[in-house]
Amino acid sequence: MSSFPQIFAHRGARAVAPENTLAAFSKAFEIGADGIELDVMCSADRVLVVTHDYEVSRLSNGSGFIGRMTWPQIETLDFGSKFDQRFAGEKAPTLEQVTELLPPGVHLNIEIKNDQIRSHGEELLVARLIQSRQLFDRVLVSSFNPFVLRRLRKIDPRISIGWLYEARPPIYLRPKPVSTFLRPQALHPEFTVVTPELVNAAHRRGFLVNVWTVNEIQDMQRMIDCGVDAIITDYPDRALALKG
User: Fold this and answer.
1) Which of 10, 107, 120, 188 does the annotation list as catalytic?
2) pLDDT for 14-64, tens place per residue?
3) CATH number among 1.10.3210.10, 3.20.20.190, 3.40.50.970, 3.30.2000.10, domain 6-53+97-241
4) Is the pLDDT of residue 168 over 90?
5) Active-site annotation holds for 10
6) Which of 52, 120, 188, 203 is catalytic?
């Protein structure tokens, strides 16, 4: 029987608190998640903002693009009321604020949001924060963008990276090229493509397999049976209950 995977709260415990906020992360810690997963991007004044969407209107009472707004502008927005009035006034935190809140022993999966080839500066800022707080053994940085991960690898090879993908990886990044181009510690496939064969093949090549976003109990159990290393979920309490 495989060991029980780590359970990461996707954007915090976003089923019970507004995603990517300190409230959601605090709830995840309270539940007992092994780690939290969050998204970051740069503001116009080069602050690492923890939020998933490039544009703020879905989650907040404002409008506009994170990359064109300054941190003082973003800081005025309410990221809680749209989820529930109980969270009125909840802010989008900075990555530094989240690391200050991180309890001992809890891990952090930082997803860098960038769908372009060129850098927006996140890689260097993330690396500096990890270095300054000596979080090398507690942080893994992931992205769908292989160029982001390659730049991060060059900045500091001590930082663990995980490559996100949905279906089959593009041909130029299938197992052998992944090893040489990115040299990741982990693969982060969407859970529906995961099989025991995929997990075994990844483990033979030295990759961890961390799957997203697994919310139904039967899917969580299937991932456990496949032998994955971590489950990223909106419902960390459901996953942890399977530990028995």
Assistant:
1) 10
2) 999 999 999 999 999 999 999 999 999 999 999 999 999 999 999 999 999
3) 3.20.20.190
4) no
5) yes
6) 52
Q: What are the residue boundaries of the structural domains of the chain, listed by start? A: 6-53+97-241
pLDDT, one tens digit per residue, over 208-236 is: 999 999 999 999 999 999 999 999 999 99
Residue type, 222: R
Please say if 188 is a catalytic residue.
no
